[in-house]
Amino acid sequence: MSKPKEKFTFFYRSESPFSQWYPAVFVVGEYTFDSAEQYMMYGKAMLFGDKEIADKIRSAKHPRQQKQLGRQVQHFDKKVWDEHARQIVYEGNHAKFTQNKELLEALLATKGTTLVEASPTDRIWGIGLAEEDPRVHNRSTWRGTNWLGEVLTELREQLLSDHQK
Length: 165
Fold this sequence. Notes:
Mean pLDDT: 96
Order of helices and strands: EEEHHHHHEH
Protein name: GTP cyclohydrolase
Keywords: Hydrolase
Structural class: mainly alpha
CATH topology: Tetracycline Repressor, domain 2
InterPro entries: NADAR, YbiA-like_sf
CATH class: Mainly Alpha
Low-confidence stretches: none
Shape: globular
CATH superfamily: YbiA-like
Radius of gyration: 16 Å
Strand order of the largest sheet: 1-4
GO molecular function: hydrolase activity
């Protein structure tokens, strides 16, 4: 018997609730964040002990600025980042989706699919292909790892499982 064809939910631009740049206010600990990108860059700065950049990231009002500041983190080590990045992004998105009911509903509505960041330029968090590219429908032809899509799919499955308990 053949395996059922995998179904995908593609996203990319900041207008998508699944984007790291989508404006969504949430609180983690004592701090309020305005997007998952801000949380991610703040987490990156804190991971490497760069409190100065972390504070600047929390003050920055746009994800583009937050990302630029995240590139300035002192003592950055790619190996260490690669070990921790997905957990940081998971934690930020957990807060984002569980504290914003309409976003949670949008995430849960993707049940039965794999979330895929169809970013033509990002080969780590995305698949390195645009949604219009015919290669998006087959994992073996992706040019990226889809870390963000994997994190969001895992988060959705965990939230669905928690809801059934």
